[in-house]
Amino acid sequence: xxxxxxxxxxxxxxxxxxxxxxxxxxxxxxxxxxxxxxxxxxxxxxxxxxxxxxxxxxxxxxxxxxxxxxxxxxxxxxxxxxxxxxxxxxxxxxxxxxxxxxxxxxxxxxxxxxxxxxxxxxxxxxxxxxxxxxxxxxxxxxxxxxxxxxxxxxxxxxxxxxxxxxxxxxxxxxxxxxxxxxxxxxxxxxxxxxxxxxxxxxxxxxxxxxxxxxxxxxxxxxxxxxxxxxxxxxxxxxxxxxxxxxxxxxxxxxxxxxxxxxxxxxxxxxxxxxxxxxxxxxxxxxxxxxxxxxxxxxxxxxxxxx
Length: 306
Ligand SMILES: [Fe+2]
What we know:
The protein is globular. The two termini are 32 Å apart. By secondary structure, it is an alpha/beta fold. A hairpin with a 6-residue loop joins strand 14 and strand 15. The model has no long low-confidence stretch (mean pLDDT 93). The chain has one domain: 2,3-Dihydroxybiphenyl 1,2-Dioxygenase, domain 1 (Roll), CATH 3.10.180.10. The longest helix has 14 residues. The strands form two sheets. A nine-stranded mixed β-sheet has the order 14-15-16-13-9-12-11-10-17. Fe (ii) ion binds next to strand 9, strand 13 and strand 16. The site of fe (ii) ion (FE2) has 7 residues, from strand 9, strand 13 and strand 16. Belongs to the extradiol ring-cleavage dioxygenase family. GO terms for molecular function: dioxygenase activity; ferrous iron binding.
């Protein structure tokens, strides 16, 4: 049997896995009640709390108290993306690293169901919150699951979105952002698209064994590119496209499959104007600790989707 050497590394495998996962996330909408209706009735989320300016929603497989906070604002966009640290000590390590970059903004304790949250921004100004303490979701009599290893009963409603999958940001300063994600947050770039001169045009970062959790797409300005939720099956994405057509929700593209990350997808525009992706990457995980960044050129992308 022949063996091949480990591929050339683009990250340090000695680096601690100090981030556990991405989520929950805040989303701005100028049409709060219409956005709530979209997520609850069509996408299968559950309203779990509300205050004067926002509504908290939960996906059925999220172990945490809430998945998305919709916030009433004049324009669509993304607020804070919360990152759960892998431990209390990991939170301190990451916060110390961020502090040394000058991107830290102190700690707050007023985010519902999260404990102390260390606020920071990436070099493009996108807002993040790092936390460890988190209240777990408590199902009530109306959504108690039969299985004790499941957060809530399967909703059986609309697209039945299972969980938050990833946040895709528009990035104005791709080199600074990619250095920050790799060197300060310890994320791995699992795939990237490069321009003809070799500079990155889009980068997919993973903080655990999911193939990606945070994506940055080069653009003239920063902001939200799209927010993605995972479904159990591809068939639910096909059905969701029909549901959205019937409900007058604009489909931007799909259903189709990206060659990049092999993600089956549907992009729709929710009533507040945010681009929402429904995605399914099957059982694809990145298990290799020495996974090299897969680079796609324009020519390779031109071969199209799969
Ligand atoms: Fe995406």
